[in-house]
DNA sequence: CTGAAAGCGCTAACAC
DNA sequence: GTGTTAGCGCTTTCAG
């Protein structure tokens, strides 16, 4: 597996580099069977591996996709990254995964880094939807490379987007609780993110439909971190709520940790609907009823769109921005009890 | 941010490509201040970004490191990947993270993929230490690219390695339990991995030192998955053990899930020492005493070694295989009670 | 101080 | 059937 080039093979077989290149890429061409066989044989024997760098330089594409995510340690993003990586590989693309550490400046550095390295396309989960980095927006708006924003967005930047319908998620969760007889339903949401706000909207809609008022003391704010949710849950247990919509994985985890600490049980003392059941599901007894966001579906949609853009941009002209919205669904487990 | 090359700038300034290249890379050279300023100015105005592909082709290096891990969804590996990515970026390297999905064939495919793409170095966590892929071993043994194996190893392949001392981890965990007055100490380990076997050795050594016999019914096998540990824990609660050494994060999680399901409490009913406290720590009440493997330390050691090799291999000759072993340490929390 | 020229390894017209 | 040639965008001797 040492370094052997087309030229080496050409010299050995006594043919030109062109022929060797043609055969090794098995292009439609008229190289005699004998030569072809010889080339293949020598190539295998010497362990030839094409130099992708050189190839990329002339082909003007790298067969590489770049991914920017805020935090690879989050289960949702880890799972997203894994899925995307797998699907890219199936399509013959490599994936460069980068981690912005929840920093908007890094977002913009990483975009540049990835583009310099000649990725053919970019998948971006921005680290902050509100604290927008000016540089990022201006870079993005005149990027030569196709990109699609996933899951989170920058306000007012027209571009391709793929996301889940968070409002629907919040609605489904809350309606389920109502259908099981609950009326005093709290929710823990992240008001500093669009996803959180939308989930809250859904919560409010479901309550509204049944003529139940949204009570301020039932709406608890929390970041998407366990510790933060743990704090929020302290306020929860001072209310008379019988059910709670925990609007993310980590939020559910923080909530449950708090409940356990107070010897409160689910669903005996509180009925809980979670979001993104990935983690909580395997961790907890009982398993949590939750709103599921199908990650493979998300990554598939994002890649489909991105690859379409890449094809379009190679072909010549590309269409206007697209937005695809995926519906989450309610997955019934054992954390909600019927109230009579 | 459209595509602008050295030539474009050269033409605009009325100088040669050479001069432009020289000043843009600010090499020690004698280009007049005036020219230099003009070049810089035009470059910025046109938004020049060097084409890394072309650069790599001539420089014969890509400033890119490849990482192969078995499963990015595991917290330990996610954290490792995040750390390595950060440190690479600080050193001006990009990181290509790939996921082998616990498949040895993928290991070998990924090695080839990354090498073809011209990574300057490779960090590998093999997916299976025993089911060795022949192809992988032969590729690795004559790889032109420096690489270091991290955390797990292939038997009989002389190469650079960085790992934690698992035997010590098992020893520290068990000794702590003994010091707190426990004698009926069970352990849940993964016998299908070297890490598991070594941790078991440490467990046995600690017991042996105190003249406590290793009881077969106390040694429970489990994969590194929550579900598997959950099953193993079912057997645990049929013994009369008062303490248990849960030899991984997921194992601890499966164990705790089982204990909760049976309304058993920690440390009231069982004292528990876990491993890799990352997850369990934030999730559970009480926090778990555990053996900590310092991931930043691991990634630092791995990268130090790798970068040294890269330097050596560029310089000319590189030394023989190195092995660096890091010590884990016991972190006291609240999951162990003193037995009197 | 500055530029011409060669070449990294590969692909692709276009000859022969 | 097969070879020649000309780049891809950049760095780097080596001459002026």
TrEMBL record, chains A, B:
GO terms for molecular function: DNA-binding transcription factor activity; transcription cis-regulatory region binding. Keywords: DNA-binding, Repressor, Transcription, Transcription regulation. Residues 4-59 form the HTH lacI-type domain. It comes from the Bacteria. The keyword Transmembrane does not apply. This is LacI family transcriptional regulator. It comes from Parolsenella catena.
